[in-house]
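My current task is to audit a protein record that another person submitted. I need someone to confirm that the token line plausibly describes how this chain folds. Take the sequence as given and treat only the tokens as open to question. This is what I was given:
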Amino acid sequence: MGYYFQRKRIKREIQKRITSKAHFILNSDNNGRSAKVFTIKEITKATNNFSKSNLLGAGGFGEVFKGVLNDGTVTAIKRAKHGNIRGIDQILNEVKILCQVNHRSLVRLLGCCVELPNEPLLIYEYVSNGTLFDHLHNKNSSKWIRLGWHSRLRIAHQTAEGLAYLHDAAIPKIYHRDIKSSNILLDEKLDAKVSDFGLSRLAASEATHVTTCAQGTLGYLDPDYYVNFQLTEKSDVYSFGVVLLELLCSKKAIDFNREEGDVNLVVMVKKALKEGMLMDKVVDPMLKIGASKLELETMRAFGSLAVGCLDDRRDNRPSMKDVANEIACIIGIVADAKAMGY
């Protein structure tokens, strides 16, 4: 009997949260854009009744299905776990954030469905080529592409531009709070799109930080944020610095298969840099094969930029705009060298 009443209470709480945010979801008076509203009939048809053959992935929040709308548009549809208040909160937060942004390097929200009382659904553009994590770390599958240096630089630059937009162009500014390689999607042209805004936060117009419990992913979490509970744009910069290391090294942020002192990629790289062994111990050997002297120097510069993003003191880290500009300069050097035959 107690279990029955607890389920009823949770159901009422979930419905209350969905109802409280429905006006925001369905209207555009938030200076952003409204989400298109889909019916559950449309979504059920698009996913073949949420067929397991359409399942793209699953996590603590719920599941993501591939769907094809009536007009042929291919989509990715996120469904929260039934009765999971935290997962539903994250989905509603994602709508709130994505209704306010529009950038080529941010995944596009096409709409939502709020017909089911306990399961809001989000409908996104379908990004067909998996995640950056897949391509860097799932090396035993022929499905994933071995990314060359030029591709990695372009992915880094596009991601940096998307994050700089959140920090500098969005009103109010947005802190992503969970930047990692598995949240960077790649399309058929290997163009990058930042995804998963479930943990993101809007900053008040004059605020320098948001005070909140530390959340994020092990290996990517800003130590300053973890200690002080102050989320800033520099928290995203730190997390992005870890992604830059992944691009340079093809190593995971945390890997318990590495030696004890090297489990954490940031610690490993900083130690190698201190020993003057960045190029020998850290850089992906595949990148160095056939690389020109100038390209090797750009890898060294890229590594230094990454470490700058990872400074323990957030005030010493560059802004995302500066990071994007620095990567653009590195890309320009590589392009000029190629044009001149170096």
